[in-house]
Design a protein that fits this description.
single chain; alpha+beta; four-stranded mixed sheet; globular
């Protein structure tokens, strides 16, 4: 097992080349496969999740192992249901305990041939692909948006298209909007036809030369790094981020403005790509209350950031954190305690810190096979020199060169086998 010991520099003035958007890459690959196109999207993410999808649609093996990639499990399940051939799709032990029932039920309702090979409602699955009629379908809006996105993306190849009604409370709408936007860029006729209804016409995708933008989720750790730094002259230029991005996590620029980080747009100049320049400013916010329903992947970043900046918080809309790579609510409470912050959980969907602190133990931070645990805690080394993180390799799931990028801006990272 690897362990990193991290020591941060005091000054930053660097350009960071962020990875391509994992969310857009994964959607683009599924759409590319459904379009039978020859031109793959450009600037694909090099993360594990994207590589799993790329390998699957390129080689189409009898058994597809998505490992810990939840997005790949959901998206490929729908894709395989409408693609001729018989396949088994499986993953890690954790993946076998992440629910897939709502998606399977919806696909079966439309005529898909899917069997559970072990526990009902969970992977692994045996899928025999065939033509599906589609048509009218209802699904709860408060489940993972990945189920909804998976169904929407196969809509154009369904005989009757798809009219999807989302019942109840809708969560993670920005991810659904991102799916629709990506589909539209690649030729689909898909849109909101009512406040809770999405209509997808049986109109084929058009393969084209498609460039994928940088990842706003990955940018969050650089915003956090700047927010926790002491030097008000510190700055990062985050290359490839787009203003007006459809990525839901782009909201982080506004939230971090409350924590002392200012964002300025720098447009492309000749051959130089544009991006976001982030700088420090004086912070006056005494407390942060925020609903993360539409951007749950940012929760870990802001729990660590606010705690270390001594900003009490009440974060809601976190129910989906229970079924991510790990139970992120439990993991955050456990690991923040090592840094001395006593965080309270409420209703399996809220995290609260009212300023209560104890003496930190500074035990190594566990990552629970969760990339975002490693990346959200790494910047805390600015305030906790010599912070140790176990299993740092988990970042490969979404940001494989994260540690290399930290080294490039001056972090000292010592590697030990334990």
């Amino acid at each position: 097992m690897k362990q990193y010991t991290i020591t941060a520099p005091t000054h930053f003035d660097n350009t960071v080349l962020l990875p391509a958007s994992k969310s857009i890459s994964n959607r683009s690959l599924i759409i590319h496969a459904l379009s039978n196109g020859e031109v793959k999207p450009q600037n694909l993410s090099d993360c594990d999740d994207t590589q799993v999808i790329l390998d699957a649609i390129t080689h189409m093996p009898k058994e597809i192992n998505v490992k810990a990639a939840g997005t790949a499990m959901r998206f490929l399940t729908a894709y395989l249901a409408v693609t001729k051939g018989e396949h088994i799709i499986t993953g890690t032990d954790r993946m076998k305990h992440r629910p897939i029932g709502p998606l399977v039920d919806s696909l079966r309702y439309m005529g898909a041939d899917i069997e559970y090979l072990e526990e009902e409602g969970f992977p692994p699955l045996k899928i025999t692909g065939k033509e599906i009629d589609g048509g009218l379908l209802e699904i709860p809006g408060n489940i993972s948006s990945q189920y909804i996105s998976a169904l929407l993306m196969i809509g154009p190849v369904l005989k009757n298209g798809l009219e999807l009604t989302l019942t109840g409370t809708l969560i993670s709408r920005p991810y659904i909007d991102l799916t629709l936007w990506t589909m539209q860029q690649l030729g689909a006729k898909a849109e909101w036809s009512d406040v809770n209804v999405v209509s997808v016409k049986p109109y084929p995708y058009q393969s084209n030369n498609w460039m994928i933008e940088s990842d706003w989720s990955a940018a969050s750790y650089w915003y956090e790094t700047l927010a926790l730094s002491h030097d008000f002259d510190n700055t990062f230029f985050l290359q490839g981020l787009l203003d007006g991005s459809k990525q839901g996590d782009s909201v982080l620029r506004y939230i971090f403005s409350l924590l002392g980080v200012k964002t300025s747009i720098e447009k492309p100049i000749q051959q130089q790509p544009g991006g976001m320049r982030i700088t420090r400013h004086m912070r006056t916010l005494p407390r942060l209350d925020y609903d993360f329903t539409n951007s749950p992947d940012l929760a870990q970043t802001f729990v660590v950031s606010c705690s270390v900046l001594n900003i009490p918080f009440h974060f809601t809309g976190l129910s989906s954190l229970l079924i991510k790579e790990t139970d992120r609510i439990k993991a955050l409470i456990t690991e923040m305690l090592k840094l001395g912050y006593v965080i309270e959980e409420r209703n399996n969907s809220e995290l609260i810190w009212n300023g209560l602190k104890i003496k930190p133990t500074l035990e190594p931070i566990e990552t629970y096979e969760d990339h975002r645990m490693a990346m959200s805690f790494a910047p805390a080394s600015i305030r906790f020199p010599g912070l140790k993180i176990n299993h740092p390799e988990v970042v490969s799931k979404s940001y494989p060169h994260f540690w290399d990028d930290l080294r490039r801006v001056g972090f000292i990272i010592e590697e030990n086998d334990i």
